Amino acid sequence: MHAVLWEAMEKMLLGIILGAREVRTVGCVEGLLILAEWVPHADASLSNISHKGNGGLAGTEDTAAWTLVGLAVRQAYLLHLDKYAFRGDASEVENANLHRKRLAWTFTYIADRQISIRMGQAFWCRGPSLATKFTASDFPTLQPQNAYEDDYASVLQSQLELTVLFGNIHDLLYASKPRTISLMLQGDYTKYLDDSVQGLAAWKQNWNQLDVGAHLKLLLELKYEYLRLYVHGFAFQAAMSRTPSTPPNHSGVKLTSRFPHGVLATPDGRHIMLGISAAKSVLTMLGHRISPTRHLRYLGPRFYLYAIHCAVFLYKAASYGAIGTEGRNDCVNIIQRYIDNLGVAASCERHIAARHSALLTSLWIRKEARDPPPNGEAVTTTTENTQPFTPDPPMPSMSDQATNSLTTPEPNNTQSYLPNFTGIMAPPPRYSIVPPESFVTGLYGTNQQFNEFDIYNFMDLGAYGEPDLRNLIQSVPFDE
To answer: Where is the Xylanolytic transcriptional activator regulatory domain positioned along the sequence (predicted)?
Structure first.
């Protein structure tokens, strides 16, 4: 069935690319945006897997989403939807067709901004934009008609405001690699971080009490926490860029920690701690406050990539000494819980959740098993004999009823694609899915030894492209 539907979809996409008249509709723009948010499961025919393991399935979703959003943008301009970025006169209030076109253009703007930041592409100077600050009242078709309905108009307004913040922060901190390097080395970024924090606090204050379903509020919180990491992670990378790898007057002796006197002893300590907190919050929400089969399974790829970025950020922070042994154990347990959820959420071995569970296991859990903390303390994990999702007590920020609706226990017979299970994703006994150093170095600007910082190879949090996950999907033997 999937093959037949995909063949029909390919023909439709070809018609869109060639500008066929029958596809020049608002519905076409809407369909492209939906398909870009939930791209089909990666297939071997869509990737370039070489005999050496290069290439793979992990980066396929973003590439497909980037292409589909680009088609939606062109189609929207072809239909002149950009003129609906302005408010009309009072006579247009009851025009349902106008509101549909405004919604299509608004979501095109949001999708374009999100995918551009994720792919590390600069915003097009004449790309989608909003000439008016729209509020919930500008989207009457999304407003609740009954008391039991969610206020999707307010949800959209909150998304718009968060997207504007995201875009402005990207332009200030990650506009170009030379500017980013200059900001880090000269220390001129603190005022931008403070302004960004102030903007995020204002957004949080405005929308913290939004009365919508628990699943909608959780998605907004995920975006908010990831944006916090996007801001504060900059300070961590800047601190690394200015910290020498060897102490003064001790040539050849490498520092065991970039924070020998503690994180808070550094000028960027507050931002670094807030970045670690934000990364943990994202992974905790995905591991404790969401049902794997009813919600996590159907999230768009960008939320999975949020978790990947958070996990790599915490891994790097722990490696450079910003996280102590106790905090490291906490990170491992948080990530293990998320991995458990991924294994249950995966509907097949090609599902993005199945692949990401293998990637995170190789980066954190198996790495910890091979390389215990320096002081010899064991890292407490539950890698073996992991049980399917079981709920934790409700989080304080959610109502009891709403939280329970997200954390209903899963059936005991739920198929799991955890990599440590003897199932489809399990590697052969002598093999492990081990991430090459390029996974971490390509994303967070370190060299092949992962001990020396290379500022000119800086790629942080998707600002200059998503992590190249493709090389991770290969099995290499353990060291004898």
So the answer is: 65-141
